[in-house]
Design a protein that fits this description.
There is one protein chain. This protein is 3% helix and 61% strand. It contains four helices and 39 strands. The two termini are 25 Å apart.
């Protein structure tokens, strides 16, 4: 498998298995791939997934609420997520709360459809979180971070052999973070712990067991956000600190992920791997949603929708795969064969009280709405069981010294049965998805490629009538050019793509305590350019530009809340004149976005750029001090226009981290 990035100073990586399950060099992969390495994560303090993905080429982070986030790429929602290349089959594009990165070595983002290993094809991207593993030699690190709004974070990581022979190895990672916020009344705390044990059962067999737990305890968080316009259609200009949440609002979540992995060397380069994953998620909330449109003069016109919500979910997945080389036609090729089965059990219940109470905008902003007793009984509920069965195969065929065919097939059967918010939630669908890509080496360091894939993704969103939307279907294709330096330390790519996707779920409104959606047909076209790695000794760079256009079936612009152009750049440079000093910068720019609110009213966010700066000084072999300054120009901007409400992003902030490493 691909080597970990934690011992490398490089940005990016040269190998990824996210596309096919085979360890392919990025230049051999017939799709666009971005890798955020451990060096980049540490330099810019990328301690949580939302911040990390906001710096990835072509990825858009939609912070619709303080503790709910969606992600998109190439104009469409990202719904495919993996851990160590194994699909999380019931993940959606929605992230509840904060997901810490302390337990991961790197994050790989494969743009374009990946129905091969993910059991569903989606034309946006696949995000693969690669766990930190035990090491053969003892290593340890610890960090203390202090920052704006009373940010306090401590983390520690120790790994190494657990017996004299080294046949038993372990790793323990812990993190604790507590912070207030630039937002009125909002504060968050999270605790993270991960333990992994790796045992050599024999010369050819390795057993790995692990569990990770993250508990989030935010207070004063928003459900929904701020109304964006007055009843006369004019935009509302808030302070950056404005929030619609009262101090009593809470969303307690516990997220536990366990895995077992058995890897056996079959000989001749072939190996077999069996993986069992189980994830248990629980949420307990009390929150206030505010709806309506305020009057400019009086602020009247808003109403309350407070709710408690209890959610229990258990996801289980088993995956078995074999892979290795074979001879055919006098040439050596590689193949992977696998099968997976997953089950997801969901139970949820909501209770409401004091609905529809009239509020003014000032009452919303000062958080004065009192917490109800919530003693009216359960008002909405849901319970369902989702199942997916998948078989897949893929191969890298060396058709000549310069031409490679990457091809595969995935057969998925998905079903769901149950009730969601009192409405039947039943579907059953099967789909065979082929994938094919050609890579041709035009030079020892340069390749051209083309790939095509189909799209199929069952949805859980409900329409205005309460019915489950039909599955997303469509097709996507990509052509590109890739470069890899002779020393394998720098990769660059240029890609053009076209995607046709039908019945994409798009937020359409809120009624009776739930969000409802409509299906949108859209075609996206665009291109991406990226470069990542070591440009020169001491100079690391990760930069990417993406541009797209998204049209509906009648040729009109759709999904206008998605920026048509984005630029991402992160770089660090070692200062030779001051040994141990490293300086860096990170830039995120996006073009203007808008949302049609109906009735001739449009909400808009102009193009903006966010510049972060960093400085790190290594004053001994084991100690370093890193300072980060974020949003240096104190830019004021809306986080998202995915929904008809939102709030402002984080203003200028700073943090300092003291690190020790052995």
């Amino acid at each position: 498998s691909a080597a970990p990035t934690e011992q490398s100073p490089a940005f990016g990586a040269s190998v990824s298995s996210s596309a096919t399950g085979l360890d392919l060099r990025l230049r051999e992969t017939p799709q666009s791939v971005s890798v955020t390495s451990q060096a980049q994560m540490q330099a810019f303090g990328l301690n949580e997934v939302r911040t990390l993905l906001s710096g990835v080429t072509g990825v858009q982070v939609e912070k619709v609420e303080t503790d709910r986030t969606y992600f998109s790429a190439r104009g469409f929602d990202i719904t495919n997520f993996q851990e160590d290349g194994i699909v999380l089959p019931f993940a959606s594009g929605l992230l509840n709360g904060d997901m810490d990165t302390a337990i991961y070595d790197r994050v790989e983002v494969l743009r374009g459809a990946n129905g091969l290993l993910s059991s569903t094809g989606n034309p946006s991207a696949t995000v693969n979180f690669v766990r930190k593993r035990p090491t053969a030699k003892l290593q340890a690190s610890a960090g203390l971070t202090l920052g704006s709004w009373n940010l306090r974070r401590v983390d520690a990581d120790v790994a190494g052999p657990l017996n004299a022979s080294g046949s038993l190895r372990g790793r323990l990672i812990v993190a604790d973070e507590d912070k207030d916020s630039y937002l009125d009344r909002y504060q968050a705390r999270k605790q993270v712990a991960s333990g992994v044990i790796e045992a050599d059962l024999g010369p050819s067999t390795v057993l790995t067991l692990g569990h990770a737990q993250q508990n989030n305890r935010p207070q004063g968080l928003m459900w929904g956000a701020l109304p964006l316009y007055y009843s006369d259609g004019s935009a509302i200009d808030y302070d950056s600190s404005a929030s619609s949440a009262p101090a009593w609002a809470r969303w307690d979540t516990n997220d536990g992920r366990s895995f077992a992995e058995l890897l056996h060397d079959l000989g001749g380069g072939w190996s077999a791997k069996a993986t069992f994953n189980q994830r248990r998620i629980s949420s307990d909330t009390a929150m206030l949603y505010v709806y309506g449109t305020p009057d400019r003069a009086t602020g009247a016109g808003l109403f309350s929708w407070p709710s408690t919500y209890d959610h229990q979910e258990r996801q289980t997945l088993a995956d078995v795969q074999v892979r290795g080389p074979f001879e055919l036609g006098g040439r050596r090729h590689e193949a992977v064969f696998g099968a997976s089965a997953g089950r997801n059990k969901v139970d949820m219940a909501s209770s409401y009280d004091d609905l529809g109470q009239a509020l003014t905008l000032q009452q919303v902003l000062d958080g004065s709405f009192a917490m109800p007793d919530f003693d009216q009984g359960v008002s909405a509920f849901g319970h369902r069981i989702d199942k997916r069965r998948t078989v897949y195969s893929a191969g890298k065929f060396n058709l000549s010294d310069s031409l490679k065919l990457i091809a595969g097939l995935n057969l998925t059967r998905a079903s769901s049965a149950g009730v969601q918010y009192g409405v039947d939630h039943n579907y059953r669908a099967s789909k065979t998805q082929p994938f094919a890509g050609l890579v041709y080496d035009v030079h020892p360091n340069v390749s051209v490629y083309g790939s095509a894939a189909s799209i199929f993704n069952p949805q859980t969103e409900l329409d205005a009538s309460g019915a489950v939307l039909d599955p997303v279907e469509g097709r996507t294709g990509e052509l590109g050019l890739k470069f890899e330096s002779s020393d394998k330390r720098l990769n660059a790519s240029l890609a053009v793509f076209r995607t046709q996707q039908d019945n994409t779920a798009e937020y359409a409104g809120f009624a009776n305590g739930i969000s409802y959606y409509r299906g949108v047909d859209a075609t996206a076209r665009g291109f991406e350019a990226e470069i990542a790695g070591t440009v020169a000794p001491g100079w690391q760079l990760s930069a990417g530009y993406a541009q797209n256009r998204i049209k509906g079936e009648d040729g009109q612009n759709v999904r206008t809340f998605v920026p048509r152009q984005t630029l991402r750049l992160s770089t660090t440079v070692a200062i030779d004149a001051v040994p141990g000093l490293e300086l860096g910068a990170s830039l995120k720019w996006q073009s203007a976005i808008s949302r049609d609110q109906g009735g001739g009213i449009t909400s808009a966010q102009d193009a903006y750029a966010l510049l972060d700066l960093m400085a790190r000084y290594r004053f001994s072999k084991h100690w370093s001090l890193t300072a980060n300054l974020r949003n240096t120009s104190d830019e004021k901007y809306l986080n998202s226009l995915l929904w008809d409400q939102n709030y402002y992003g984080e203003p200028r902030s700073a943090s300092v981290t003291l690190n020790w490493a052995y």
